[in-house]
Amino acid sequence: MRHRIAGRKLNRTSSHRLALRRNLVASLFEHETISTTLEKAKEVRSFAEKLITLGKKGTLAARRRAIQLLNNRAIYEEQDGVNSKVGTVIGKLFSDIGPRYLDRPGGYTRIVRLSKRRLGDGGQLVLLQLLGQDEGKSKKSKEAETTEG
Question: Of all residues in the chain, what percent carry a pLDDT higher than 90?
Fold first, then answer.
């Protein structure tokens, strides 16, 4: 029986699960949307939201804790055929992503199911996305239009 055992094994060793979780969250913060399987997305979502909460705090202790949990991977972009370092994942978390959600108490990610299935094992594919800042404004503007008209 599995009483009081949290988390999914995902058919991996504990070190492989940890590396998978770190890499998926780092890619999520870098690209702000990733495509993965439903089970992996559900497992990664809570870890990502805890890191965003650390990013909202913005203290030195929170930054060190985030580096400990996630590692500080560099972000590269191609410019004129040459890859150049733009920043780091932790830097983006604390400068862009954390301040974006200061007024939001939680629920920073969204899972959107895709109609495609993964080749090979037929796993359910989903998009794991960070919620955008403009979505709240568009909801308010739609509500204002319905009350006016």
Answer: 79
